[in-house]
Amino acid sequence: MFTSNPFAELAVFLPPLAMQVYIVLMIAAVAIGTLVDMLHKGSAKFFLRQGKKSRAAATRQLGVADNASLAIRTLLKEVVTSGEFCNPMRRISHLLMFYGFLTYLVTTIVMVFVYPTPATPTPAVWPLLWNIGALMVLVGGYWFFFFLRVNVAKEGHSPFSLMRADLFIVSLLASVTFALVWEIVQTTGNLRATQITFGIYIFFTTVLFVGVPWSKFAHMFYKPAAAFQKRVEEANGSSNLPPPSNARYIER
User: Fold this and answer.
1) What are the pLDDT tens digits along the chain (252 aa)?
2) DSSP code, position 86
3) Neighbours of 170 (CB within 10 A)
4) Is the separation of the CB atoms in 130 and 104 below 8 Å?
């Protein structure tokens, strides 16, 4: 099961082109949803306005090398290692979800576009990585959902007390969970059950990607941009924020 391409078996009831078009549409949905979110919240205007204010108040001009260095530091801390999380448990959970989802997404695209049918045998490494990525998402995601969310861990609310901010994590977990359920059911040879579980998987996946304007999906693009802007302001002397009063406390 873990070494066979589940998407290749879709050819029994779904042409490969349908799944390929679906993925393209979901990529477009994320791009459009992020743009809509930016326009609605005025994020692009905010960053442009903040950049102008920073340059006007700067006491030191930054060169190309300075900006490149700041961009690399932002990439390494806020993206690669999620260093903005002070709580180590939340950081580990986030990294599991981030790298798991990235692995799951890339391997899905490879299996759907490069090995779409049983006639194009899939190297075992791709479905294996797909399953590993999915399991990483589920471990990190369910850990966060049941134990690390602020309203659950700090305020004592039920994990099933949901709000709009939970749309991303709920749709992500539902999508990946039913991806594995569909894969397992597919091995039984029951075509009707396979079609039903695949339909549920596609439904939650569509909610995940189409729901970008109403979920926290777009935050993964904003947070690095905000962190980079903060570093630029600190480096050029335009920041009006006080330095941390207790570095040890912040790092905990």
Assistant:
1) 688 999 999 999 999 999 999 999 999 999 998 888 777 666 667 667 777 777 778 888 888 888 888 888 888 887 788 777 778 898 999 999 999 999 999 999 999 999 999 999 999 999 999 999 999 999 999 999 998 887 676 666 777 777 777 899 999 999 999 999 999 999 999 999 999 999 999 999 999 999 988 877 666 666 777 778 788 888 888 776 665 554 443 333
2) -
3) 18
4) yes
CA distance 115 to 123: 9
Tokens for 3, please give them.
Answer: 């070494």
The CB-side HSE value for 252 (13 A sphere, CA atoms) comes to 4
Q: What is the largest CA-CA distance in the chain?
A: 69
- Is there a contact between 173 and 145 (Cβ–Cβ < 8 Å)? yes
User: Which residues, at least 6 apart from 138, have a Cβ–Cβ distance to it below 8 Å?
Assistant: 100, 173, 176, 177, 180
For residue 131, the Cα-to-chain-centroid distance in whole angstroms is 17
Q: Which residues contact 167 (CB under 8 A, 6 or more apart)?
A: 207, 211, 214, 215, 216
> Could you tell me which of 175, 181, 183 has the C-alpha nearest to residue 217?
175
